[in-house]
Amino acid sequence: MVIWWLVNMASPDIRLDHGVIYSIISPESRVLDLGCGEGDLLYPLVRDKRVRAQGIELDDKAIQECVKKGLSVFHDDIEHSLREYPDNCFDYVILNQSMQEVKNVDFVINEALRIGSKVIVGFPNFAFIRSRFMLFLRGRAPITKPLPYLWFDTPNVRFLSIDDFKNFCAEKNIRIVEARYLGERRIVNFWPNLLALNAIFVLAKGNT
Amino acid sequence: MTETGTKIDIDKSVGVVEPQYYTYAGPGKEHKLESGEKLGPITLSYETYGKLNKEKTNAILALHALSGDAHAAGIHSGHDNKGWWDDMIGPGKAFDTNRYFVICSNVIGGCKGSTGPSSINEATGKPYALDFPFITIADMVHAQRHLIDYLGIDRLLCVTGGSMGGMQVLQWVASYPQRVRSAIPIATALKHSPQQIAFNEVVRQSIMADPAWREGNYYAYGQPEKGLAVARMIGHITFMSDQSMEEKFSRRLKSGRFSFGFDTDFEVEGYLHYRGANFVKRFDANSYLYITKAIDYFDLSGGRLIPGGKPIDTRFLVISFKSDWLYPSHQSQEIVRLLKRKRVDATYCELGTTYGHDAFLVEVEEQTTLIKHFLDKTFNGYLVVSEHGIS
Fold first, then answer.
1. Which residue range forms the structural domain that includes residue B306?
2. Chain A positions touching chain B (beta carbons under 8 Å)
3. Is residue B267 part of a domain?
4. How distant, in Å, are the alpha carbons of A11, B211, B242, B267, B274 from that of B236?
5. B214–chain A Cβ distance below 8 A for any pair
6. B71 in active site
7. Arithmetic mean of pLDDT, B84-104
8. pLDDT in tens, B300-310
9. pLDDT higher at A13 or B275
10. CA A100/CA A111 separation, integer angstroms
11. What domain range includes position A198?
12. Which chain B residue has its CA at the smallest distance from A75's CA?
């Protein structure tokens, strides 16, 4: 696994967030990827870690790409896709770079925690330093690598910072098992709310 | 299978094929139908394409829709009618006959070589007509299982079909899950809705209202042509979409002006007449009655598709079409919800074609991509898939 990690850290083809999530997921686990796109995250997991994977994706062209990779995908939107699953039927439910496009975040995360023992959430940090400069100095809505859209043409309906998300988890009694903060090319360890472009949280149900 | 290689493009077609016949359920061994009645002997007409491998692991059973037959691909000697799924079955096609052995058989109750109401009843020496027992989708599948046994195939790599063919796919999984490695039901449903039953009832009534139907005993006189043609016209309306009809006919007139009479004014009318008239030449009216009834009786909802708590390892690829209002996507999604609850490995895709229900026959490109790779993964696992690499 370490070798895979090193190889892929060096490879510009593998997204850093995918590498981090790959390293978190244990072999042969059951994984549901919400908004799996063309299956670039699930594919190495299935091939190398023999993960039992299911994707959910809305775009039918992306589904065709997934099927080309041998992945199983349901054509559905994230919010409607979760209800039928029994409790705890996945080891991991992944919501990577898709939460900001979800309208009913609270519901989706709750459902994900119901059907999965752990939930991996990855999202772009709106409080990243460059975003702050764009807003503060230039007075313009921030455009960054993980948030590249213009205000009038964006799929994103949620804009949140790392600290916002931590607050959300505390308020909803969601346990943060692990958090990783990502810069453009490497892991960020200091002041993540200011210096990280992306965050990846591993969540579990809180103690009730 | 023989190929002449003269008239047809061998690279893209399975070539000239010959219908084959298998007869079982002889005296004393009659097939007990779901209704409790017995039927025998039973003949199934079937065709095969490609070669069965030594391990007998590459067999695919293609299942036809209401008015289909065993002739799914290639041409018959002396005719140039291509099989109903010729675009999908052949060398390099979705069901690649260079790799797989594809079987298609005519359903019982049909009129294209398999035992049905127009067949001779050995007890009377006359066509069965309405003495033919009622058959169900499960009976059709039961008969196909006898054929698969006869061909020596223990486990099918895939069962596939659209519309009523998709119902047979689902029935195969319900009846013989251990014999189906993968299933591709297309544009189909777990059960007919009241709207679908209603269309079938109008179809049946139009046949039975024709005096030429003679309570089903028309074989000495000829088909109830008018009733059967109207029945087929209704069918064709439901197979197309509003948009595909607009594109195909719009309001175009046949002769450029109104006739101010009840002649054929619009192109769409001409098309329906043509389809109806063609159909009476090739399809038995009583078969249409029996098969539409079998479709209406079909119901695998409420846990009947995958009974019990046992997990099944059949993989699914479920396909629906956005413009199909006869078998709308929500019916395929109902299948998918069931598969989710049972944790079955499955893929579902709704394709955006405008062809309506006909899309399973004519939308080739996207179906091919999905089916080809799905089969590849089923047959080879990740040995082949890993060559794809990460993009």
1. 16-190+300-388
2. 13-14, 38, 40, 43-44, 46-47, 52, 54, 60, 63-76, 84-86, 89
3. yes
4. 55, 23, 12, 14, 11
5. no
6. no
7. 97
8. 998 899 987 77
9. B275
10. 16
11. 2-205
12. B349
Would the CB atoms of A85 and B340 count as touching at under 8 Å?
yes
Same domain, yes or no: B370 and B249: no
- Of B263, B294, B325, the one marking the end of a domain is B294
Beta bridge partners of B39: B31
Please tell me whether residue A175 adopts helix, strand or coil conformation: strand
Domain boundary among the residues B294, B317, B351 is at B294
Interface of B with A in 124-163 (CB under 8 A): none
B346 contacts A63? CB cut-off 8 A:
no
**What CATH number has the domain bearing residue A50?**
3.40.50.150
pLDDT 10s digits, B179-213: 999 999 999 999 999 999 999 999 999 999 999 99
Nearest-Cα distance to chain A for B292, in Å, is: 30
Any catalytic annotation for residue B255? no
With CB atoms and an 8 Å threshold, state whether A67 touches B349: yes
Neighbours of B130 (CB within 10 A): 12
Amino acid letter, A39? G
B2 within domain boundaries: no
User: What is the mean pLDDT of the segment spanning B66-75?
Assistant: 97
Number of domains in chain B: 2
Does some domain include residue B9? Answer: no
Q: The domain that contains B204 carries what CATH number? A: 1.10.1740.110
Mean pLDDT of A52-76: 96
| Residues B136 and B34: beta-carbon distance below 8 Å | yes
Q: Are residues B24 and B147 in the same domain?
A: yes
Reported ipTM: the value is 0.89
Residue B163 among the catalytic residues = yes
Mean pLDDT of B30-34: 96
Q: Which of B335, B349, B363 best probes binding to A when mutated, by most A CB atoms within 10 angstroms? A: B349
Angle (deg, nearest 10), helices B285-297 and B225-239 = 40
Terminal C-alpha separation, chain A: 35
